[in-house]
């Protein structure tokens, strides 16, 4: 039976949080490399077929953007003693009252934030050491992800605290003290914006991406610890296609 691409992707949008975050118990198994790796995600399960047939996939190379008024982004994250989880794919921070963002004047609630090594997005073909993704959702089920590129340099107190608590194997550990996630933001808030997808299965095309141009610095030792847990957890770059990459 032939597959209607638009109908399939529309079906994923009916439950973007449960389908989109795609790491729940009982979900099909996937990895980044080798068998069931990124090249095969679309074949693992019908729910993942957007990974193969989608036309607005992420991540992308952030090159040749159009300078434009990309709308306001107001960040309103809240400090919390987050629960730090090794979920088998990344190190993720979750909380109960994490705040959110105002994007174009519309509220999105912060659901979780997590990390990738190396960065998933590239700047002119070059990836940085790591990338943080802050995943938000609104009441209509639309996702907005704020991306922060990371490079080795000065110690970042917030990332150091997260990595000090990060389990080396699957499991969870709560931070001993509240942490302000805004400490993971660059001082320069110029950013790229484009329409894309989740970078993990099911690769649903429901994400408004906002990636800061300027990387933050974190301690090389903390990058090394993350790499010792996840040597590589970044999806290959995807074609930009006919989409517009904006910068403002």
Tell me the radius of gyration.
Answer: 17 Å
What is the residue-mean pLDDT, rounded to a whole number? 91
CATH topology: Carbonic Anhydrase II
**Which sheet architecture does the biggest sheet show?**
13 strands, mixed
Q: What structural category characterises the helix and strand content?
A: alpha+beta
Number of domains: 1
Q: Which homologous superfamily in CATH is the superfamily? A: Alpha carbonic anhydrase
Tell me what you see in this structure.
It is a single chain. The chain is built from six helices and 15 strands. It has 248 residues and is of the alpha+beta class. The chain has a single domain, classed as Carbonic Anhydrase II. The strands form two sheets. Strands 1, 2, 3, 4, 5, 6, 9, 10, 11, 12, 13, 14 and 15 form a 13-stranded mixed beta sheet that branches. A two-stranded antiparallel sheet has the order 7-8. A hairpin with a 2-residue loop joins strand 7 and strand 8.
What features would you highlight for this structure?
248 residues, alpha+beta, Carbonic Anhydrase II, 13-stranded mixed sheet, 6 helices, 15 strands, 17% helix, globular
């Amino acid at each position: 039976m032939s597959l209607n691409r638009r109908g399939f992707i529309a079906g994923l949008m009916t439950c973007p949080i449960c389908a989109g975050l795609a790491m729940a118990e009982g979900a099909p198994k996937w990895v980044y490399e080798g068998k069931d790796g990124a090249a095969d995600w679309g074949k693992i399960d019908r729910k993942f077929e957007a990974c193969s047939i989608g036309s607005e996939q992420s991540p992308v190379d952030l090159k040749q953007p159009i300078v434009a008024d990309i709308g306001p982004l107001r960040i309103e994250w809240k400090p919390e003693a987050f629960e730090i989880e090794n979920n088998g794919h990344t190190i993720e921070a979750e909380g109960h009252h994490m705040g959110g963002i105002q994007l174009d004047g519309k509220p999105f609630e912060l659901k979780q934030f997590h990390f990738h090594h190396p960065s998933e997005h590239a700047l002119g073909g070059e990836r940085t050491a790591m990338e943080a993704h802050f995943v938000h959702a609104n009441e209509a089920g639309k996702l907005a992800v704020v991306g922060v590129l990371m490079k080795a340099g000065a110690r970042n107190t917030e990332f150091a605290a997260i990595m000090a608590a990060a389990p080396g194997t699957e499991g969870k550990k709560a931070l001993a003290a509240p942490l302000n996630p805004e400490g993971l933001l660059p001082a320069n808030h110029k950013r790229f914006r484009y329409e894309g997808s989740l970078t993990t299965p099911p690769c649903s095309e429901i994400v408004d991406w906002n990636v800061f141009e300027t990387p933050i610095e974190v301690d090389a030792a903390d990058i090394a610890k993350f790499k010792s847990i996840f040597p590589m957890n970044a999806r290959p770059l995807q074609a930009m296609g006919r989409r517009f990459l904006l910068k403002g």
